[in-house]
């Protein structure tokens, strides 16, 4: 939560919005922008999407940086500070731990190799993009957006290397967090019990190294990461998404259709930003992170693509032994080697002198936690430490692919995050690849921390692109992913053992195999699907359990439900509350608290539902059916009581959407009621949950915290028929007409035309800005 850096006086929501409108970025007319070579046109459509037309590459990316800063300057300034470890200037000493972690994971290798790993012109693009941001900062000053005025600071100028930050990548590489949780689980309940309660897929009889001190693995290992992700309220659990593609054999148009809806934490402004980039050699439209050049997912004139997280294990924790007399030395074989030490300083709000920090590194990576008294240090090895490890920046190569095969070839160099790309081209080819820099581990599995001294737990390079899971023009004519286990039958390589529950993918597969001659409207319907497979499983379980008389009416309500988790569903509300009670009761005594933390949560809905459907003695004792029945009766009774307390005694008035809502919270909302009223948007009722295709994952209070704030669907027979959404709006500036104009569409499950041709763009243009040298 942000706190004010200066006295703001008495404000009302009306006065705040008036001040915000007074400093809105101009989106019409002509502006001079030092650094341009030739004029650039920026046509914003009625939904707030900027279509940028430039006459050369450098001006194109200069304009992209300029426009992104117009709409999202406060957001990208905060992101830059988080990535570079400069938040203590805003938050004071409480942010030292966060900045230390960010600096530990920064790329510190050869910059020439780093730039070259993305595309031959990546550095030139970054120079132009950051020059555009800086030109916008110069145009704003000193009339900064209201967030800067309220907090009393000015945005910093950008350097090209600022876009190489690793924070947005590390939040999507979560395997190392589960290593700690699994180690704690073994330490608490023993190895055999741990294997039962945290099974892997494929099955693996994981075990710690013989001399590994598991007691050294405590939640303190997460302290820096937790601090560094708190400022933006990133959701630390596994990121989830859906995507699918069908070829022309299954479509009404005879050309491929493609859908993608990446799921991230709900935020205001949105984590994604839609843009259309047009210049010689460039004509790409879609979304990406506003602080990065290019388009992360979308289409160009030839190819369309979308992605989901794979979950490839791209990280490992090494427990290093440190010298009893010198904690800056650690064991390597039979020798003591010095750590690499970096001394830096932090500018801390409230302190007159810079605060020194010491960053330590072993051969395995940054030391993210150290217990000097016990002679132990934990080092994090992850692929982001190497050239090419900046999240999504390799999109600069993807954006220019001229065929499905060319895009597949470009994906061979993709590093972070691990992504299931589905793609299609106008000639009719479709494909999928689990693109990621994938470590090779020989003789160990990466499921637990390993000792670092002996050198027997080292990566043996990376899998070649040909060995990554993939398919091209499959005989079933469709491909899709939803963070589920994507390993093909007979696949021999070890890339991951932890996946999301399979229910979203099962539902996608059911929809795609249930008809032919798909249209865009069909794909839109699938994206909004909220039929719950887990609800059907629970309904079957309930039919097999004898219930007391007072619970039977609620069982009837449940049994008569079709499993569609709409906002209007009566039984859906009871289902959601019951699911919470089941998860809590089943895992409380079986899984220690330290294995149920947000960072490294080992609870599995899949395991719970399997055991409810077919209870086993290993989980329920010597009389598993009776114990399962007792669990069902106990938790359903609690769920009924809670639901009545939340929604009243009359089940006719129960509605899932009364409990399950989404509110978009501005970073300044914590400053008081006036800021909440002026800047927050919502709540809006929501359907679905974490296991429906329309993923609306919620917290313990049923508020949606995660989901598809961005979606797109494309018919490759006509790019102008594409549809998209990005909520709550394209602009991050309160008072802008595009601050929240897309929220009503999103809340109702609708979207808008993502037009592509110049003629269609002209038809829907609402703001015309000309940037001139």
Q: What fraction, in percent, of the residue positions are helical?
A: 25-40%
CA-based gyration radius: 26 Å
Strand content: 15-25%
Largest sheet: 7 strands, mixed
The coarse silhouette is globular
Mean of residue pLDDT values: 95
Say how many strands there are. 29
Unreliable stretches: 1-8, 232-237
Structural class: alpha+beta
Number of helices: 25
Description:
With 773 residues, the protein is of the alpha+beta class. The protein contains 25 helices and 29 strands. A 7-stranded mixed sheet has the order 1-29-2-3-7-8-9. The chain has a 6-stranded antiparallel sheet with strand order 22-4-5-26-27-28. A hairpin with a 7-residue loop joins strand 26 (710-715) and strand 27 (723-726). Helix 1 packs across helix 23, helix 4 (96-104) crosses helix 11 (223-230) and helix 18 (570-588) packs across helix 21 (624-647). The longest helix has 28 residues, at 57-84. It is globular.
